[in-house]
Amino acid sequence: MENRITRLFNIRYPIIQAGMIWCSGWRLASAVSNAGGLGLIGSGSMYPEVLEEHIRKCKEATDQLFGVNVPLSYPHREAIFDILIKEKIKIIFTSAGNPAIWTSYLKEQGMTVVHVIASVKSAKKCDESGIDAIVAEGFEAGGHDGKDETTIFTLAPLIRKAVSLPLIAAGGIATGRGMLAAFALGAEGVQIGTRFVVSEESSAHPEFKKRILEAKDGDTSLMMKKVVPVRLLKNKFSDEIRKMEARGASAEELMNILGKGRAMRGMFEGDMEEGELEIGQVSALLDELMPAGAIVEEIMREFSEAKQELTKL
Amino acid sequence: MENRITRLFNIRYPIIQAGMIWCSGWRLASAVSNAGGLGLIGSGSMYPEVLEEHIRKCKEATDQLFGVNVPLSYPHREAIFDILIKEKIKIIFTSAGNPAIWTSYLKEQGMTVVHVIASVKSAKKCDESGIDAIVAEGFEAGGHDGKDETTIFTLAPLIRKAVSLPLIAAGGIATGRGMLAAFALGAEGVQIGTRFVVSEESSAHPEFKKRILEAKDGDTSLMMKKVVPVRLLKNKFSDEIRKMEARGASAEELMNILGKGRAMRGMFEGDMEEGELEIGQVSALLDELMPAGAIVEEIMREFSEAKQELTKL
């Protein structure tokens, strides 16, 4: 398959592994890039020197291109940019901020810049900012989501209609059938997070992976809407948030209970009760831990099979 | 196209027009059935004698089969069942209640019984109850939605995996591309609401139709979660609900502000400020009022075109 996304990143398959905090270091990113997709290192949970180490190890583990995800709200973002420039990283995925501020600077450094959005308004801002491709992320995605709660089924065709930029769909996609549905809605690539969290190479804690594989529909919930909406796997901590929100707790109270280090505690250290467990709705569909490369192969095989089936209709 | 859904209802296209309160009377249902889909009269906003009149007029307007949607929570449901039996209605879509209680009775009357669900647990209950087909309705749908907030992108493959019943996808589907995406996810038919609300034959108030065509992404919101979750177009009334919910208002307070007749006032009488306006997220994608028959034709044409495009990948 060849399209604008495979050409933009020089990859075999238009599958991008999401750059996620605490889950996607050099092992996962290099495995996905080696398998023909695009691996991303998630810098949002890394101090600059940790990121530097991951980039170096990733280069040793693959001769393919890989990228780095940088939340623009991240306090260390400028130190991160300096590392990306020094290490000659060619692909950056930015999220959680205004693309107008940094895009031209990053592009002057020779980078391909992709931005994650969840609304038509943000997509148009990307278009004006010179972004190279858009990730449209639906309400069903794990971690931080948009405030409008637009699902990928509605968002993808809206973005396709609003801007002509290459479009990557994210949220709810974990299989070849999901990828095919995203393409039917106008996407040219998919960004997959949850499925890769339960890969062998992900740095998520084994207990977290186990809980994801056990998850059923209704086991995640979009919370903290008064602060920044985030989709979490339900546990003791999320239950506390739910009760606070039901009684009308303020953003400040919610920030206080969140505190510091909750995500690390849950996803990386394996505290399944008090940790923050960011994961997508599609966790309910998953029941097998696999190597990341095998996941890429399985998705592409299922994509082709499902396409053949549709053709016969 | 022929599949389990077209055979079950003896229809040309596997497109079902949702039976919606205040919008889908005999004019809309007969237009859709005449166009080769399945039209449904929405009985949830009708007194039994009003429904009887709609059924008679629908029979005069089409010689094709049509069905009736009955919310099982509706106080008049038994009077409604009696009318359906008397009028020899062969297709009933039930929603908002337990299918185990009524399905065998309705099937003994010779009816094909379809039930609307939003979770794997409910789908399994349908399977045990002898239901003939399932409508899996995602979070993006207008009106009453499930508590789990599972989107159609996640829900459809989960239901496909959990039960072998014929599967109709609903929520977020308004176009041929949407229909194709739903089929990629395992659906064999689609139920479409919002798109038919803005048809010429819908009984929605012209002001309501106008507002739907103007709607952008983010203009609907799932509210009243402490009572029964319902997706509404944002207006003065919904803004009041939003503020009450933010301060932690109780289910009782929310029921009080809702009061009686809000939905009629908004959707049927055209009060755009104080009325309750039930509509789906996909309203953001719509910009043209068309006859229902032309909508069916356009969806099928786009479905075929999009299928051809996918084949070339």
Describe the structure.
Two copies of one chain form a homodimer. By secondary structure, the first copy, chain A, is α/β, with parallel strands linked by helices. Chain A folds into two domains: 4-203 and 286-311, Alpha-Beta Barrel (TIM Barrel); 206-282, no CATH class. In chain A, 44% of the residues lie in helices and 14% in strands. Chain A has helices at residues 4-9, 26-34, 48-61, 77-86, 99-108, 120-129, 152-162, 176-184, 194-197, 206-214, 236-246, 251-258, 262-268, 292-311; strands at residues 15-17, 40-42, 67-71, 91-95, 112-117, 133-137, 143-144, 167-170, 189-192, 220-223, 230-233. In chain A, helix 8 crosses helix 14 (292-311). The two termini of chain A are 22 Å apart. Chains A and B meet through helix 7, helix 8 and helix 14 of A and helix 7, helix 8 and helix 14 of B.
**Main interface pair?**
A-B, 51 and 51 residues
Biggest sheet strand order of chain A reads 1-9-8-6-5-4-3-2
Would you count the extended β strands of chain A for me? 11
CATH architecture of the largest domain in chain A: Alpha-Beta Barrel
Give the total of domains of chain A.
2
Radius of gyration of chain A: 18 Å
The whole-number mean of residue pLDDT values of chain A reads 97
Task: Give a brief rundown of this model.
The first copy, chain A, contains 14 helices and 11 strands. Chain A has helices at 4-9, 26-34, 48-61, 77-86, 99-108, 120-129, 152-162, 176-184, 194-197, 206-214, 236-246, 251-258, 262-268, 292-311; strands spanning 15-17, 40-42, 67-71, 91-95, 112-117, 133-137, 143-144, 167-170, 189-192, 220-223, 230-233. At the A-B interface, helix 7, helix 8 and helix 14 of A face helix 7, helix 8 and helix 14 of B.
